[in-house]
Design a protein that fits this description.
The protein has 330 residues and is of the alpha/beta class. Helix content is 40%, strand content 25%. It has a 7-stranded mixed β-sheet. Strands 3-2-1-4-5-6 form a 6-stranded parallel β-sheet, sandwiched between helices. Strands 13-14 form a two-stranded antiparallel ribbon. The two termini are 38 Å apart.
Length: 330
């Protein structure tokens, strides 16, 4: 059993803490978070010990670190862990600055340690099954990918101010899925954004409603639509159209029960938010990383994938400002 440490016990950190505590091949040895009260609750629930960064990095028994802390800390923690020879699982984005991201990736490469970025949607059972059938040639050559990603409600102004904006925090997942499904790298991107939902987005110079078009060198296309408001729940759908047919993965519902009556037919709304919707994928990505560290295999989602998604985020921001397609070099 390998000792691991979790940095950050916010919402996603608590999800990871539960999955790590339940995993049979690791022991959640430490949790690190500046919020001592929050750290204490997670420590009490998982049997972990509250520690500081120095203690963790200097403990040779800690073989893996899971970084789910504030975005501004990701690169520093990853580089410190790499220098100590520890395997790294890092939530996206690695950093909001590409130069800083490259510095981090260089340090990781020099250390030769495993690194997996937290693009959990690749591990969603439905999305993964779609990808496997796509790769199996079931619908022939890909022509179009359509990704719908809508949150049920907007972020608070405080949360927005501490992040990197909707494109870097929300759409980055969709850009990764676009790359994964297209089968070719995008070479140009168009983005348009509006502030239609909540005033805090406009106040911070951000968007709460956006659409994107990605195009590859061969002409394959991807359309992504984002919104921070969906009255019916967390809307997560993917459609891939090919030469011989179409594959779709729809929303996940709490139950499959449907009611048929004189006034119509009804069923459950989609899960309300990402913690419930992607519960299986979060557990699966953690298990994948632990297995890779144990067996020496390369993780399926690497630091390079995180970097490429960030390049698409930057191109999208530039396009939203310029009103033109922007070139992309991945």
């Amino acid at each position: 059993m390998m000792d691991v440490c979790l940095f950050g016990v916010g919402l996603i950190g608590r999800v990871h803490a539960g999955n790590l505590a339940r995993h049979p091949k690791v022991r959640l040895r430490y949790v690190v978070d500046p919020n001592r009260e929050a750290a204490a609750k997670v420590a009490a629930a998982t049997g972990a010990e509250i520690a500081d960064t120095e203690t963790v990095m200097n403990d040779p028994a800690v073989k893996m670190v899971f970084i789910a802390s504030a975005t501004r800390t990701h690169a520093d923690l990853a580089m410190a862990a790499a220098a100590k020879g520890k395997a790294i699982f890092c939530e996206k984005p690695i950093d909001l600055d590409l130069k800083r991201t490259d510095e981090c990736l260089a340090a990781v490469a020099k250390a030769g340690v495993p690194f997996q970025i937290g693009f959990n949607r690749r591990f969603d059972p439905s999305f993964r099954a779609l990808k496997e059938r796509l790769d199996g040639g079931e619908i022939g050559a890909v022509e179009q990918v359509i990704i719908t990603s809508r949150d049920p409600e907007p972020e608070t102004e405080e949360a927005l101010a501490g992040g990197g904006g909707v494109f870097r925090e929300m759409t980055i997942h969709d850009f990764d899925m676009a790359r994964n499904m297209l089968g070719e790298e995008p070479v140009e991107l168009f983005a348009t954004g509006s502030s239609l939902v909540a005033p805090q987005y406009k106040k911070l110079g951000d968007y709460d409603t956006a659409m994107f078009i990605l195009r590859t060198a061969s002409g394959r296309q991807c359309h992504i639509n984002n919104s921070v408001r969906a009255a019916y729940g967390y809307d997560q759908r993917i459609e891939v159209h090919g030469a011989d047919g179409m594959l779709q993965a729809g929303n996940r519902l709490p139950t499959s029960v449907e009611m048929y009556g004189g006034k119509g037919i009804s069923r459950d709304k989609p899960y309300y938010f990402f913690v419930e919707r992607y519960a299986e994928s979060y557990a699966a990505e953690i298990d994948h990383f632990i297995t890779c560290v144990e067996t020496g295999r390369k993780p399926a989602v690497t630091a390079s994938d995180g970097r490429k998604a960030m390049i698409l985020c930057e191109a999208a921001l530039a396009s939203a400002r310029s009103g033109r397609f922007e070139p992309v070099q991945l």
